[in-house]
């Protein structure tokens, strides 16, 4: 029987579902994003206004420089009428010539004459600048916050626009590229016909045309619906706006329901030309939409985001320093753990995927860094954002043979045969179960060394001499340590392993080799070899490992290692 869920007892009846949009012929669901939208970073405004401790001058400058380095060309740098600090920061950017010629700064203001004047004054001397004006248009805000009807609400926007134009003419004659952005705040809760009416009235004032665009930013100020609803709203606006070719439709999602990314992406499918957000999703409450995730999502689809994320840890460092807030370990693309597999089946698939990639690239004669990326569980190549494979596989109690053998291969070039991988991973598992937590490469090597290389079993290999008879019989004399004493043992057989086993039989150690694998560890004069022996000793199947400059010595050490394994298992 299916388990029966119980009523939560929480007062969910207080909430109403968000109404769907009547747009039966919507086109966005069957579209694909094929090019980067225009980006605006509002880290220095919406992000900054929501910080526990707003950024000081130094931090703001560091953030601005980072955004410029990454390639953002539209940057909202503050709310200059809010405080002297914000005003001075904008002045500082302009007066110190810090703004590259191809970067357009913008500043936000309420639709109040005195604030608009001060806002425009902050921009004097800028080559490229946008004034961004907002007023809330949603019914609840008209009623509760402003106490106005629709007409009075529209008048705030229109008069605000008029003031922006008048003050721009008065103060910004030298500004070569002056832009205007209008936001009907709480757009998502505003009746669509009214949002359109206000935007049209603002446009009538601004008069967009060739060479004179207007940015109409349609914010999901507080995200309240599934992202398909936002997409419908954007498509409806995009279709119904007049002078559309001179309008840049911009989306500004917040992340209250955790679907800000989806809202932005669907908004772009629905016709938005531009996206406003913050690095790692800082901003009011749950934050603005995250520009890093959006950009990297495009990248992972083979679309150039036109933003450089190649040193994601440096981006994260600067953002954490400026905001004084941490980026979560599981944050998409930038978190500490997002390129890491802990669980056995994931590790196994990643290990095989990386090996297959190398193989396929070599077969195709293409450098692996240029070969199409397809590795299970890793949506992108971590190297492309400055991460290495060190962190890709990490071991804890959830890990299996794939993970531990990957680490041995990565750190020590040991390519363990499959059954030895299983043998070793059981040993590691015993430790992780007992001790808990994560085991790093050093700890895994320690366990491997203790288990297979410690040379503390009943017989230790020291040296050997050999000769081959004319009939092909291999004869060996080996110096071994037995119970603290050095002894010479001798034996013969078709090859070194069988001859050594024959010699061991002479001191009552019976070994039957079942499988044997060897490989070189490095090239050149100090070449080292690894040998792996699977043996039947006293009715037990055990593995032994030997490392030496000489491949024969490595294989004889591996036999002694297997004897040690059997001895410990018996003990
Ligand atoms: C969704 C967003 O992120 S919007 C951006 C929000 N950011 C900020 O508010 C940060 C900067 N703001 C500030 O520093 C201050 O709010 C200031 C300097 C702009 C204004 O300060 P004050 O004059 O003290 O007003 P206060 O902060 O109380 O704002 C509320 C007033 O502004 C009015 N108001 C709010 N938004 C707008 C707007 N877009 N256009 C016109 N008036 C507005 C309200 O109706 C209210 O008016 P009232 O006092 O007559 O009732
Ligand atoms: C000022 C506007 C654009 C805003 O930040 C919002 O509505 O979220
Ligand atoms: Mg906002």
From TrEMBL:
Decide whether keyword RNA-binding is in the record. no
InterPro entries, A to Z:
2-isopropylmalate_synth_dimer, AIPM/Hcit_synth_CS, Aldolase_TIM, IPM_Synthase, LeuA-like_post-cat, LeuA_allosteric_dom_sf, LeuA_N_DRE-TIM, PYR_CT
Catalytic activity line of the entry: 3-methyl-2-oxobutanoate + acetyl-CoA + H2O = (2S)-2-isopropylmalate + CoA + H(+)
- Transmembrane intervals: none
* Residues that, per the record, bind Mg(2+): 46, 252, 254, 288
Q: Enumerate the cofactors the protein uses.
A: Mg(2+)
Q: Which family does it belong to?
A: Belongs to the alpha-IPM synthase/homocitrate synthase family. LeuA type 2 subfamily.
Designated name of the protein = 2-isopropylmalate synthase
Q: Taxonomic lineage of this organism?
A: Bacteria, Bacillati, Actinomycetota, Actinomycetes, Streptosporangiales
């Amino acid at each position: 029987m299916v388990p029966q869920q119980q009523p939560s007892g929480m007062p969910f009846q207080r909430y109403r579902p968000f109404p769907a949009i009547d747009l039966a012929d919507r086109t966005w669901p069957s579209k694909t994003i094929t090019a980067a939208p225009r980006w605006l970073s509002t880290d220095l405004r919406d992000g900054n206004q929501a910080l526990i401790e707003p950024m000081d001058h130094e931090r703001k400058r560091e953030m601005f420089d980072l955004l410029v380095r990454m390639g953002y060309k539209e940057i909202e740098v503050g709310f200059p009428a809010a405080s002297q600090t914000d005003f001075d920061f904008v002045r500082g950017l302009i007066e110190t010539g810090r703004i590259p010629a191809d970067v357009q700064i913008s500043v936000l203001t309420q639709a109040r004459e005195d604030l608009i004047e001060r806002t425009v004054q902050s921009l004097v001397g800028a080559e490229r600048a946008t004034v961004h004006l907002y007023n809330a248009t949603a019914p609840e805000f008209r009623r509760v916050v402003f106490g106005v009807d629709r007409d009075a609400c529209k008048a705030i926007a229109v008069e605000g626009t008029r003031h922006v134009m008048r003050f721009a003419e008065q103060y910004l004659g030298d500004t070569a590229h002056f832009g205007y952005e209008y936001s009907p705040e709480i757009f998502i809760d505003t009746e669509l016909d009214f949002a359109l009416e206000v935007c049209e009235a603002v446009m009538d004032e601004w008069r967009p045309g060739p060479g004179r665009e207007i940015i109409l930013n349609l914010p999901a100020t507080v995200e309240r619906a599934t992202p398909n609803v936002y997409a419908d709203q954007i498509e409806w606006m995009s279709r119904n706006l007049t002078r559309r070719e001179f309008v840049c439709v911009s989306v500004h999602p917040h992340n209250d329901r955790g679907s800000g990314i989806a809202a932005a992406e669907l908004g772009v499918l629905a016709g938005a030309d531009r996206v406003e957000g913050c690095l790692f999703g800082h901003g009011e409450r749950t934050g603005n939409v995250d520009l890093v995730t959006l950009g990297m999502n495009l990248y992972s689809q083979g679309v150039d985001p036109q933003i450089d994320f190649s040193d994601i840890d440096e981006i994260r460092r600067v953002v954490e320093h400026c905001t004084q807030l941490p980026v979560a370990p599981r944050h998409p693309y930038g978190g500490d753990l997002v390129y890491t597999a802990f669980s056995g089946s994931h590790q196994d698939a990643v290990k095989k995927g990386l090996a297959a990639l190398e193989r396929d690239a070599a077969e195709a004669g293409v450098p692996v860094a240029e070969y199409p990326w397809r590795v299970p569980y890793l949506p992108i190549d971590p190297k492309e954002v400055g991460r290495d494979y060190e962190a890709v596989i990490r071991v804890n109690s959830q890990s299996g043979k794939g993970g531990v053998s990957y680490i041995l291969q990565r750190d020590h070039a040991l390519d363990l045969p499959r059954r030895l991988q299983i043998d070793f991973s059981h040993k590691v598992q015993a430790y992780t179960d007992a001790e808990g937590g994560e085991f790093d490469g050093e700890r895994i090597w320690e366990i491997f060394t203790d288990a297979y290389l410690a040379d503390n079993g009943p017989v230790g290999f020291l040296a050997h001499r050999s000769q081959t008879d004319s009939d092909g019989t291999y004869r060996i004399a080996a110096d071994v340590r037995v119970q603290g004493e050095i002894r010479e043992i001798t034996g013969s057989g078709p090859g070194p392993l069988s001859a050594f086993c024959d010699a061991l039989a002479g001191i009552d150690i019976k070994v039957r080799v079942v499988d044997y694998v060897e490989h070189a560890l490095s090239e050149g004069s100090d070449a080292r070899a690894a040998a792996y022996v699977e043996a039947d000793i006293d009715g037990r199947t055990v593995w032994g490992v030997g490392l030496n400059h000489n491949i024969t010595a490595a294989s004889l050490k591996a036999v002694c290692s297997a004897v040690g394994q059997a001895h410990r298992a018996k003990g």
